Structures
1.
Amino acid sequence: MSSTRSGPRLPHDIPDPALLLAWYDRHRRELPWRAPPGRRPDPYRVWLSEIMLQQTTVPAVGPYFERFVQRWPDVAALAAASLDDILQQWQGLGYYARARNLHRCARAVVERHGGAFPSAVAALRALPGVGGYTAAAIAAIAFDQPEAAVDGNVERVVARLYAVAAPMPAAKPRLRMLAAGLVPEQRAGDFAQAMMDLGAAVCTPRRPRCVLCPWRTACAAAANGIAEDLPMRAAKPQRPLRYGVAFWLTRADGAVLLRRRPETGLLGGMVEVPSTPWRAEPWAFAEAVAAAPAPARWSPLPGIVRHGFTHFQLELAVVAAQTTEAGEGLWSAAGELGRHALPTLMKKVARHALSASATAGHATASNSGSSPASASRTGAKERR
Ligand code: SF4
Protein backbone atom coordinates (compact mmCIF):
# COMPACT_ATOMS: atom_id res chain seq x y z
CA MET A 1 0.00 0.00 0.00
CA SER A 2 1.41 3.45 -0.83
CA SER A 3 1.42 5.94 2.01
CA THR A 4 2.45 9.43 2.84
CA ARG A 5 5.01 10.22 5.53
CA SER A 6 2.13 10.54 8.01
CA GLY A 7 0.62 7.15 6.97
CA PRO A 8 -2.30 6.19 4.75
CA ARG A 9 -4.99 8.79 4.14
CA LEU A 10 -8.32 8.19 5.80
CA PRO A 11 -11.51 8.56 3.78
CA HIS A 12 -13.85 11.42 4.68
CA ASP A 13 -16.94 9.29 5.36
CA ILE A 14 -18.02 5.84 6.45
CA PRO A 15 -19.87 3.67 3.90
CA ASP A 16 -23.60 4.38 4.14
CA PRO A 17 -25.81 1.53 2.88
CA ALA A 18 -28.54 4.06 2.01
CA LEU A 19 -26.24 5.68 -0.58
CA LEU A 20 -25.62 2.34 -2.25
CA LEU A 21 -29.34 1.50 -2.25
CA ALA A 22 -30.15 4.87 -3.84
CA TRP A 23 -27.52 4.16 -6.52
CA TYR A 24 -29.02 0.69 -7.06
CA ASP A 25 -32.48 2.14 -7.54
CA ARG A 26 -31.13 4.18 -10.45
CA HIS A 27 -28.59 1.80 -11.96
CA ARG A 28 -29.66 -1.78 -11.17
CA ARG A 29 -28.95 -4.29 -13.93
CA GLU A 30 -31.88 -5.90 -15.69
CA LEU A 31 -31.23 -9.64 -15.38
CA PRO A 32 -33.54 -12.48 -16.47
CA TRP A 33 -33.74 -13.90 -12.94
CA ARG A 34 -34.35 -10.61 -11.17
CA ALA A 35 -37.83 -9.60 -10.00
CA PRO A 36 -38.92 -6.12 -11.14
CA PRO A 37 -38.75 -3.42 -8.41
CA GLY A 38 -41.43 -3.91 -5.78
CA ARG A 39 -42.13 -7.56 -6.74
CA ARG A 40 -41.15 -10.52 -4.53
CA PRO A 41 -38.39 -12.60 -6.11
CA ASP A 42 -39.17 -16.25 -6.89
CA PRO A 43 -36.81 -18.38 -4.70
CA TYR A 44 -36.64 -21.02 -7.47
CA ARG A 45 -35.32 -18.49 -9.98
CA VAL A 46 -32.91 -17.01 -7.41
CA TRP A 47 -31.55 -20.46 -6.53
CA LEU A 48 -31.29 -21.59 -10.17
CA SER A 49 -29.43 -18.44 -11.21
CA GLU A 50 -27.05 -18.62 -8.27
CA ILE A 51 -26.12 -22.23 -9.04
CA MET A 52 -25.60 -21.39 -12.72
CA LEU A 53 -23.54 -18.31 -11.87
CA GLN A 54 -21.08 -20.31 -9.77
CA GLN A 55 -17.95 -20.32 -11.98
CA THR A 56 -19.83 -18.80 -14.97
CA THR A 57 -20.38 -15.21 -16.16
CA VAL A 58 -23.72 -13.39 -16.30
CA PRO A 59 -23.79 -13.14 -20.15
CA ALA A 60 -23.04 -16.87 -20.50
CA VAL A 61 -25.74 -17.89 -18.01
CA GLY A 62 -28.59 -15.80 -19.52
CA PRO A 63 -29.66 -18.13 -22.38
CA TYR A 64 -29.27 -21.26 -20.19
CA PHE A 65 -31.42 -19.74 -17.47
CA GLU A 66 -34.17 -18.83 -19.98
CA ARG A 67 -34.16 -22.35 -21.42
CA PHE A 68 -34.29 -23.98 -17.99
CA VAL A 69 -37.21 -21.93 -16.68
CA GLN A 70 -39.12 -22.36 -19.91
CA ARG A 71 -38.71 -26.12 -19.75
CA TRP A 72 -38.91 -26.50 -15.96
CA PRO A 73 -40.89 -23.51 -14.62
CA ASP A 74 -40.73 -24.54 -10.97
CA VAL A 75 -38.73 -26.70 -8.61
CA ALA A 76 -41.25 -29.57 -8.75
CA ALA A 77 -40.90 -29.75 -12.54
CA LEU A 78 -37.11 -29.81 -12.26
CA ALA A 79 -37.25 -32.51 -9.57
CA ALA A 80 -39.38 -34.67 -11.89
CA ALA A 81 -36.95 -34.29 -14.83
CA SER A 82 -34.42 -36.97 -15.71
CA LEU A 83 -30.76 -36.30 -14.89
CA ASP A 84 -29.92 -36.98 -18.54
CA ASP A 85 -32.25 -34.19 -19.69
CA ILE A 86 -30.74 -31.79 -17.19
CA LEU A 87 -27.17 -32.69 -18.18
CA GLN A 88 -28.14 -32.31 -21.81
CA GLN A 89 -29.49 -28.79 -21.23
CA TRP A 90 -26.46 -27.97 -19.07
CA GLN A 91 -23.96 -28.76 -21.84
CA GLY A 92 -21.50 -25.91 -22.27
CA LEU A 93 -21.89 -24.45 -18.77
CA GLY A 94 -19.13 -26.71 -17.40
CA TYR A 95 -18.57 -27.93 -13.85
CA TYR A 96 -21.16 -30.67 -14.27
CA ALA A 97 -21.24 -31.53 -10.57
CA ARG A 98 -23.42 -28.42 -10.32
CA ALA A 99 -26.00 -29.93 -12.69
CA ARG A 100 -26.14 -33.17 -10.72
CA ASN A 101 -26.49 -31.24 -7.47
CA LEU A 102 -29.17 -29.08 -9.09
CA HIS A 103 -31.24 -32.19 -9.63
CA ARG A 104 -30.55 -33.58 -6.17
CA CYS A 105 -31.37 -30.23 -4.60
CA ALA A 106 -34.68 -29.90 -6.50
CA ARG A 107 -35.67 -33.33 -5.23
CA ALA A 108 -34.63 -32.47 -1.68
CA VAL A 109 -36.73 -29.27 -1.74
CA VAL A 110 -39.75 -31.27 -2.88
CA GLU A 111 -39.19 -34.17 -0.45
CA ARG A 112 -38.04 -32.25 2.64
CA HIS A 113 -39.81 -28.93 2.24
CA GLY A 114 -42.93 -29.72 0.19
CA GLY A 115 -41.60 -27.84 -2.85
CA ALA A 116 -40.98 -24.51 -1.05
CA PHE A 117 -37.41 -23.33 -0.51
CA PRO A 118 -36.60 -22.72 3.18
CA SER A 119 -35.65 -19.15 4.10
CA ALA A 120 -33.09 -19.82 6.87
CA VAL A 121 -29.41 -20.03 5.92
CA ALA A 122 -28.89 -23.23 7.97
CA ALA A 123 -31.72 -25.07 6.17
CA LEU A 124 -30.55 -23.79 2.79
CA ARG A 125 -26.98 -24.92 3.49
CA ALA A 126 -28.24 -28.43 4.20
CA LEU A 127 -29.42 -28.71 0.57
CA PRO A 128 -27.16 -30.43 -2.02
CA GLY A 129 -24.87 -28.04 -3.88
CA VAL A 130 -25.75 -25.05 -1.67
CA GLY A 131 -22.65 -23.67 0.06
CA GLY A 132 -22.23 -20.70 2.37
CA TYR A 133 -22.29 -18.04 -0.33
CA THR A 134 -25.27 -19.48 -2.20
CA ALA A 135 -27.29 -19.96 1.00
CA ALA A 136 -26.64 -16.34 2.02
CA ALA A 137 -27.50 -15.07 -1.48
CA ILE A 138 -30.82 -16.98 -1.55
CA ALA A 139 -31.71 -15.94 2.01
CA ALA A 140 -30.95 -12.30 1.25
CA ILE A 141 -32.32 -11.96 -2.29
CA ALA A 142 -35.35 -14.27 -2.10
CA PHE A 143 -36.33 -13.73 1.55
CA ASP A 144 -34.81 -10.33 2.46
CA GLN A 145 -32.84 -11.85 5.35
CA PRO A 146 -29.97 -9.59 6.55
CA GLU A 147 -27.24 -11.90 5.24
CA ALA A 148 -24.01 -10.94 3.49
CA ALA A 149 -23.58 -12.80 0.18
CA VAL A 150 -19.86 -12.45 -0.45
CA ASP A 151 -18.71 -13.51 -3.90
CA GLY A 152 -15.59 -12.36 -5.78
CA ASN A 153 -17.20 -9.04 -6.77
CA VAL A 154 -18.15 -8.26 -3.19
CA GLU A 155 -14.74 -9.30 -1.87
CA ARG A 156 -13.15 -6.82 -4.24
CA VAL A 157 -15.47 -3.96 -3.21
CA VAL A 158 -14.91 -4.61 0.51
CA ALA A 159 -11.13 -5.08 0.16
CA ARG A 160 -10.96 -1.66 -1.52
CA LEU A 161 -13.47 0.08 0.71
CA TYR A 162 -11.41 -0.80 3.80
CA ALA A 163 -8.02 -1.05 2.04
CA VAL A 164 -7.45 -4.62 3.22
CA ALA A 165 -3.88 -5.37 2.16
CA ALA A 166 -3.71 -9.03 3.27
CA PRO A 167 -3.48 -11.32 0.21
CA MET A 168 -6.27 -13.64 -0.92
CA PRO A 169 -7.40 -16.21 -0.02
CA ALA A 170 -6.16 -15.61 3.57
CA ALA A 171 -8.08 -12.32 3.67
CA LYS A 172 -11.46 -13.98 2.98
CA PRO A 173 -12.70 -14.37 6.59
CA ARG A 174 -11.84 -10.73 7.32
CA LEU A 175 -13.62 -9.55 4.16
CA ARG A 176 -16.71 -11.62 5.03
CA MET A 177 -16.82 -10.04 8.47
CA LEU A 178 -16.43 -6.53 7.08
CA ALA A 179 -19.14 -7.25 4.47
CA ALA A 180 -21.51 -8.52 7.17
CA GLY A 181 -21.06 -5.25 9.02
CA LEU A 182 -22.38 -3.30 6.03
CA VAL A 183 -25.70 -5.18 5.60
CA PRO A 184 -28.70 -3.02 6.56
CA GLU A 185 -31.76 -4.42 8.37
CA GLN A 186 -34.07 -3.05 5.67
CA ARG A 187 -33.85 -4.05 1.99
CA ALA A 188 -31.15 -6.66 2.62
CA GLY A 189 -32.00 -8.39 -0.67
CA ASP A 190 -31.60 -5.21 -2.70
CA PHE A 191 -28.41 -4.44 -0.80
CA ALA A 192 -26.92 -7.86 -1.69
CA GLN A 193 -27.71 -7.29 -5.36
CA ALA A 194 -26.46 -3.70 -5.18
CA MET A 195 -23.09 -4.94 -3.89
CA MET A 196 -22.90 -7.43 -6.77
CA ASP A 197 -23.82 -4.74 -9.31
CA LEU A 198 -21.33 -2.25 -7.89
CA GLY A 199 -18.56 -4.87 -8.17
CA ALA A 200 -19.60 -5.85 -11.71
CA ALA A 201 -20.19 -2.39 -13.18
CA VAL A 202 -18.21 0.19 -11.20
CA CYS A 203 -15.67 -1.39 -8.84
CA THR A 204 -14.29 -3.53 -11.65
CA PRO A 205 -11.05 -5.55 -11.37
CA ARG A 206 -9.23 -3.13 -13.69
CA ARG A 207 -9.81 0.59 -13.91
CA PRO A 208 -12.55 0.95 -11.29
CA ARG A 209 -14.79 3.88 -12.12
CA CYS A 210 -14.49 5.58 -8.75
CA VAL A 211 -15.97 8.87 -10.00
CA LEU A 212 -19.30 7.05 -10.48
CA CYS A 213 -19.18 5.24 -7.14
CA PRO A 214 -21.69 6.15 -4.41
CA TRP A 215 -19.07 5.25 -1.80
CA ARG A 216 -16.18 7.23 -3.26
CA THR A 217 -15.77 9.53 -0.26
CA ALA A 218 -15.93 6.53 2.08
CA CYS A 219 -13.40 4.38 0.24
CA ALA A 220 -9.93 3.94 1.76
CA ALA A 221 -8.43 2.55 -1.46
CA ALA A 222 -9.72 5.48 -3.51
CA ALA A 223 -8.39 7.93 -0.90
CA ASN A 224 -4.93 6.39 -1.28
CA GLY A 225 -4.98 5.74 -5.03
CA ILE A 226 -4.48 1.98 -4.61
CA ALA A 227 -7.83 0.61 -5.78
CA GLU A 228 -6.36 -1.32 -8.69
CA ASP A 229 -3.83 -3.06 -6.43
CA LEU A 230 -6.57 -4.63 -4.30
CA PRO A 231 -7.42 -7.28 -3.42
CA MET A 232 -3.88 -8.62 -3.23
CA ARG A 233 -3.42 -12.02 -4.83
CA ALA A 234 -1.05 -14.72 -3.62
CA ALA A 235 0.98 -16.23 -6.49
CA LYS A 236 -0.97 -19.03 -8.19
CA PRO A 237 0.59 -22.49 -8.13
CA GLN A 238 1.09 -23.98 -11.60
CA ARG A 239 -1.52 -26.50 -12.69
CA PRO A 240 0.06 -29.92 -13.16
CA LEU A 241 -0.09 -31.63 -16.56
CA ARG A 242 -1.77 -35.01 -17.01
CA TYR A 243 -1.79 -37.35 -19.99
CA GLY A 244 -4.29 -39.80 -21.41
CA VAL A 245 -5.18 -41.62 -24.62
CA ALA A 246 -8.74 -41.60 -26.03
CA PHE A 247 -10.07 -44.49 -28.12
CA TRP A 248 -12.12 -43.54 -31.20
CA LEU A 249 -13.70 -46.86 -32.19
CA THR A 250 -16.07 -46.86 -35.16
CA ARG A 251 -18.27 -49.58 -36.63
CA ALA A 252 -18.77 -50.23 -40.32
CA ASP A 253 -22.08 -48.28 -40.14
CA GLY A 254 -20.17 -45.23 -38.85
CA ALA A 255 -21.36 -45.49 -35.22
CA VAL A 256 -18.86 -44.45 -32.52
CA LEU A 257 -18.33 -46.20 -29.18
CA LEU A 258 -19.09 -44.06 -26.12
CA ARG A 259 -19.41 -44.85 -22.44
CA ARG A 260 -20.83 -43.21 -19.34
CA ARG A 261 -18.49 -42.04 -16.60
CA PRO A 262 -19.14 -43.09 -12.99
CA GLU A 263 -21.72 -40.94 -11.18
CA THR A 264 -19.21 -39.50 -8.74
CA GLY A 265 -15.96 -37.67 -9.47
CA LEU A 266 -14.82 -35.44 -12.30
CA LEU A 267 -17.41 -35.16 -15.14
CA GLY A 268 -19.52 -37.65 -13.16
CA GLY A 269 -22.42 -39.20 -15.07
CA MET A 270 -21.36 -37.61 -18.37
CA VAL A 271 -21.01 -39.53 -21.62
CA GLU A 272 -17.47 -39.75 -22.99
CA VAL A 273 -15.22 -41.24 -25.61
CA PRO A 274 -13.48 -44.08 -23.71
CA SER A 275 -9.94 -43.30 -22.61
CA THR A 276 -7.12 -44.53 -20.44
CA PRO A 277 -6.88 -43.10 -16.93
CA TRP A 278 -5.31 -39.60 -16.87
CA ARG A 279 -1.96 -39.57 -15.12
CA ALA A 280 1.27 -37.62 -14.65
CA GLU A 281 3.30 -39.83 -17.03
CA PRO A 282 2.76 -39.92 -20.83
CA TRP A 283 1.44 -43.23 -22.18
CA ALA A 284 3.48 -45.44 -24.50
CA PHE A 285 1.37 -46.62 -27.46
CA ALA A 286 1.47 -50.36 -26.59
CA GLU A 287 0.67 -49.64 -22.98
CA ALA A 288 -2.30 -47.45 -23.93
CA VAL A 289 -3.69 -49.98 -26.41
CA ALA A 290 -3.62 -52.64 -23.70
CA ALA A 291 -6.18 -50.47 -21.87
CA ALA A 292 -8.43 -50.07 -24.96
CA PRO A 293 -12.16 -50.87 -24.59
CA ALA A 294 -11.96 -53.54 -27.34
CA PRO A 295 -9.25 -55.41 -29.22
CA ALA A 296 -8.74 -53.78 -32.64
CA ARG A 297 -6.01 -52.54 -34.95
CA TRP A 298 -5.48 -49.23 -33.24
CA SER A 299 -3.73 -46.43 -35.06
CA PRO A 300 -2.67 -43.06 -33.61
CA LEU A 301 -4.26 -39.92 -35.07
CA PRO A 302 -1.96 -36.93 -35.55
CA GLY A 303 -2.17 -34.10 -33.03
CA ILE A 304 -3.14 -33.67 -29.40
CA VAL A 305 -6.34 -32.57 -27.68
CA ARG A 306 -5.61 -30.10 -24.87
CA HIS A 307 -8.04 -29.11 -22.15
CA GLY A 308 -7.75 -27.14 -18.91
CA PHE A 309 -9.55 -28.28 -15.77
CA THR A 310 -9.52 -26.23 -12.58
CA HIS A 311 -6.77 -28.28 -10.95
CA PHE A 312 -4.83 -29.68 -13.88
CA GLN A 313 -4.18 -29.45 -17.62
CA LEU A 314 -4.85 -32.47 -19.76
CA GLU A 315 -3.27 -33.66 -22.99
CA LEU A 316 -5.13 -36.44 -24.74
CA ALA A 317 -3.68 -38.37 -27.67
CA VAL A 318 -6.35 -40.06 -29.79
CA VAL A 319 -6.06 -43.52 -31.35
CA ALA A 320 -8.62 -44.80 -33.84
CA ALA A 321 -9.78 -48.16 -35.11
CA GLN A 322 -12.70 -49.77 -36.91
CA THR A 323 -14.40 -52.91 -35.74
CA THR A 324 -16.57 -55.40 -37.52
CA GLU A 325 -18.06 -56.54 -34.21
CA ALA A 326 -21.53 -55.24 -33.38
CA GLY A 327 -20.14 -54.86 -29.87
CA GLU A 328 -21.91 -54.11 -26.63
CA GLY A 329 -21.92 -50.63 -25.15
CA LEU A 330 -23.23 -47.21 -26.04
CA TRP A 331 -22.92 -46.65 -29.80
CA SER A 332 -23.85 -43.35 -31.40
CA ALA A 333 -23.98 -42.27 -35.03
CA ALA A 334 -21.19 -39.71 -35.50
CA GLY A 335 -23.76 -37.15 -36.68
CA GLU A 336 -25.81 -37.62 -33.52
CA LEU A 337 -23.12 -37.09 -30.89
CA GLY A 338 -24.77 -33.78 -30.00
CA ARG A 339 -27.73 -35.70 -28.56
CA HIS A 340 -25.57 -36.98 -25.72
CA ALA A 341 -24.42 -34.98 -22.71
CA LEU A 342 -20.80 -34.82 -23.89
CA PRO A 343 -18.57 -32.50 -21.83
CA THR A 344 -16.54 -29.89 -23.72
CA LEU A 345 -13.39 -32.02 -23.55
CA MET A 346 -15.15 -34.92 -25.29
CA LYS A 347 -16.59 -32.63 -27.95
CA LYS A 348 -13.01 -31.58 -28.66
CA VAL A 349 -11.99 -35.25 -28.91
CA ALA A 350 -14.86 -35.97 -31.33
CA ARG A 351 -14.05 -32.94 -33.50
CA HIS A 352 -10.39 -33.90 -33.50
CA ALA A 353 -11.07 -37.51 -34.43
CA LEU A 354 -13.59 -36.64 -37.14
CA SER A 355 -11.36 -34.06 -38.80
CA ALA A 356 -8.19 -36.17 -38.49
CA SER A 357 -10.00 -39.20 -39.88
CA ALA A 358 -11.44 -37.16 -42.75
CA THR A 359 -8.13 -35.59 -43.76
CA ALA A 360 -5.80 -38.54 -43.18
CA GLY A 361 -8.24 -41.43 -43.63
CA HIS A 362 -6.93 -42.88 -40.40
CA ALA A 363 -10.11 -44.56 -39.26
CA THR A 364 -10.28 -46.47 -42.47
CA ALA A 365 -6.51 -46.84 -42.78
CA SER A 366 -6.47 -48.55 -39.44
CA ASN A 367 -8.87 -51.13 -40.82
CA SER A 368 -6.31 -52.19 -43.36
CA GLY A 369 -3.73 -52.33 -40.63
CA SER A 370 -1.02 -49.93 -39.52
CA SER A 371 2.33 -51.37 -38.70
CA PRO A 372 3.54 -51.37 -35.11
CA ALA A 373 6.45 -49.25 -36.36
CA SER A 374 4.21 -46.52 -37.73
CA ALA A 375 2.07 -46.69 -34.61
CA SER A 376 5.13 -46.27 -32.47
CA ARG A 377 6.25 -43.23 -34.47
CA THR A 378 3.02 -41.36 -33.78
CA GLY A 379 2.20 -42.83 -30.38
CA ALA A 380 1.29 -40.58 -27.46
CA LYS A 381 4.63 -40.83 -25.69
CA GLU A 382 6.88 -40.63 -28.72
CA ARG A 383 5.29 -37.40 -29.97
CA ARG A 384 6.46 -35.49 -26.91
FE1 SF4 B 1 -14.39 0.62 -5.67
FE2 SF4 B 1 -13.55 3.07 -6.36
FE3 SF4 B 1 -15.95 2.68 -5.20
FE4 SF4 B 1 -13.72 2.37 -3.82
S1 SF4 B 1 -14.47 4.27 -4.75
S2 SF4 B 1 -15.49 1.02 -3.78
S3 SF4 B 1 -12.37 1.49 -5.33
S4 SF4 B 1 -15.29 1.95 -7.23
2.
Amino acid sequence: MAADGEQRPPAGERGLAVAEARPKLKKPPLFRVILLNDDYTPMDFVVEVLERVFGMDRTRATRIMLEVHTQGKGVCGVYTYEIAETKVAQVSAYAEQHQHPLLCTMEEV
Ligand code: TYC
Protein backbone atom coordinates (compact mmCIF):
# COMPACT_ATOMS: atom_id res chain seq x y z
CA MET A 1 0.00 0.00 0.00
CA ALA A 2 1.16 3.55 -0.76
CA ALA A 3 2.26 5.50 2.30
CA ASP A 4 0.22 8.49 3.44
CA GLY A 5 0.47 11.42 1.08
CA GLU A 6 2.00 9.24 -1.64
CA GLN A 7 -0.54 8.84 -4.43
CA ARG A 8 -0.33 6.94 -7.72
CA PRO A 9 -0.41 9.11 -10.84
CA PRO A 10 -3.78 9.24 -12.58
CA ALA A 11 -4.65 6.37 -14.94
CA GLY A 12 -4.11 8.50 -18.05
CA GLU A 13 -0.50 9.10 -16.98
CA ARG A 14 0.18 5.41 -16.35
CA GLY A 15 -0.50 4.42 -19.97
CA LEU A 16 -4.05 3.23 -19.27
CA ALA A 17 -6.84 4.11 -21.65
CA VAL A 18 -9.30 6.51 -20.11
CA ALA A 19 -12.72 7.49 -21.32
CA GLU A 20 -15.03 10.24 -20.09
CA ALA A 21 -17.85 8.85 -17.98
CA ARG A 22 -20.95 9.21 -20.14
CA PRO A 23 -24.18 9.93 -18.27
CA LYS A 24 -26.49 7.06 -19.25
CA LEU A 25 -29.72 8.99 -19.64
CA LYS A 26 -31.80 7.42 -22.39
CA LYS A 27 -34.73 9.24 -23.92
CA PRO A 28 -37.97 7.44 -23.14
CA PRO A 29 -39.71 5.66 -26.01
CA LEU A 30 -42.63 7.63 -27.47
CA PHE A 31 -46.04 6.41 -28.56
CA ARG A 32 -48.54 7.73 -31.07
CA VAL A 33 -52.15 7.66 -29.92
CA ILE A 34 -54.25 6.64 -32.92
CA LEU A 35 -57.95 7.13 -33.46
CA LEU A 36 -59.72 4.67 -35.80
CA ASN A 37 -62.66 5.35 -38.05
CA ASP A 38 -65.97 3.53 -37.80
CA ASP A 39 -69.38 4.01 -39.44
CA TYR A 40 -71.40 4.74 -36.30
CA THR A 41 -69.71 7.19 -33.96
CA PRO A 42 -71.12 10.68 -34.61
CA MET A 43 -68.64 13.25 -35.92
CA ASP A 44 -69.60 15.70 -33.16
CA PHE A 45 -68.77 13.12 -30.53
CA VAL A 46 -65.30 12.51 -32.00
CA VAL A 47 -64.64 16.26 -32.05
CA GLU A 48 -65.70 16.47 -28.40
CA VAL A 49 -63.36 13.60 -27.46
CA LEU A 50 -60.44 15.28 -29.21
CA GLU A 51 -61.14 18.51 -27.34
CA ARG A 52 -61.62 16.87 -23.93
CA VAL A 53 -58.89 14.24 -23.95
CA PHE A 54 -56.26 15.86 -26.16
CA GLY A 55 -56.85 19.54 -25.37
CA MET A 56 -57.42 20.48 -29.00
CA ASP A 57 -59.34 23.56 -30.06
CA ARG A 58 -62.46 23.08 -32.21
CA THR A 59 -60.62 23.79 -35.48
CA ARG A 60 -57.86 21.27 -34.88
CA ALA A 61 -60.23 18.65 -33.46
CA THR A 62 -62.44 18.96 -36.56
CA ARG A 63 -59.45 18.63 -38.87
CA ILE A 64 -58.21 15.45 -37.12
CA MET A 65 -61.74 13.97 -37.00
CA LEU A 66 -62.12 14.52 -40.77
CA GLU A 67 -58.68 13.01 -41.39
CA VAL A 68 -59.72 9.88 -39.47
CA HIS A 69 -63.07 9.82 -41.28
CA THR A 70 -61.46 9.99 -44.74
CA GLN A 71 -58.15 8.12 -44.18
CA GLY A 72 -59.36 5.47 -41.73
CA LYS A 73 -57.10 6.56 -38.89
CA GLY A 74 -55.26 9.57 -37.53
CA VAL A 75 -52.73 10.61 -34.91
CA CYS A 76 -54.13 12.44 -31.85
CA GLY A 77 -50.75 13.05 -30.25
CA VAL A 78 -47.37 11.58 -29.24
CA TYR A 79 -46.65 10.80 -25.58
CA THR A 80 -44.57 8.67 -23.24
CA TYR A 81 -45.99 5.21 -22.53
CA GLU A 82 -48.04 5.96 -19.43
CA ILE A 83 -49.56 9.17 -20.78
CA ALA A 84 -50.47 7.46 -24.08
CA GLU A 85 -51.97 4.52 -22.19
CA THR A 86 -54.06 6.90 -20.06
CA LYS A 87 -55.36 8.80 -23.12
CA VAL A 88 -56.36 5.52 -24.80
CA ALA A 89 -58.17 4.43 -21.62
CA GLN A 90 -59.95 7.81 -21.31
CA VAL A 91 -61.16 7.73 -24.93
CA SER A 92 -62.30 4.10 -24.63
CA ALA A 93 -64.14 4.69 -21.34
CA TYR A 94 -65.86 7.83 -22.63
CA ALA A 95 -66.92 6.12 -25.88
CA GLU A 96 -68.23 3.12 -23.95
CA GLN A 97 -70.21 5.33 -21.53
CA HIS A 98 -71.92 6.85 -24.55
CA GLN A 99 -72.29 3.50 -26.29
CA HIS A 100 -70.26 4.47 -29.33
CA PRO A 101 -67.88 1.94 -30.93
CA LEU A 102 -65.05 4.48 -31.25
CA LEU A 103 -61.65 2.76 -31.12
CA CYS A 104 -58.39 4.24 -29.94
CA THR A 105 -55.00 2.54 -29.84
CA MET A 106 -51.28 3.32 -29.51
CA GLU A 107 -48.10 2.41 -31.40
CA GLU A 108 -44.45 3.07 -30.73
CA VAL A 109 -42.95 5.91 -32.77
N1 TYC B 1 -67.16 7.89 -39.77
C1 TYC B 1 -67.97 8.49 -38.73
C2 TYC B 1 -69.27 9.00 -39.32
O1 TYC B 1 -69.41 9.10 -40.53
C3 TYC B 1 -67.24 9.66 -38.04
C4 TYC B 1 -66.02 9.23 -37.33
C5 TYC B 1 -64.85 9.99 -37.42
C6 TYC B 1 -65.99 8.11 -36.53
C7 TYC B 1 -63.70 9.63 -36.74
C8 TYC B 1 -64.86 7.72 -35.84
O2 TYC B 1 -62.58 8.16 -35.25
C9 TYC B 1 -63.70 8.49 -35.94
N2 TYC B 1 -70.23 9.32 -38.47
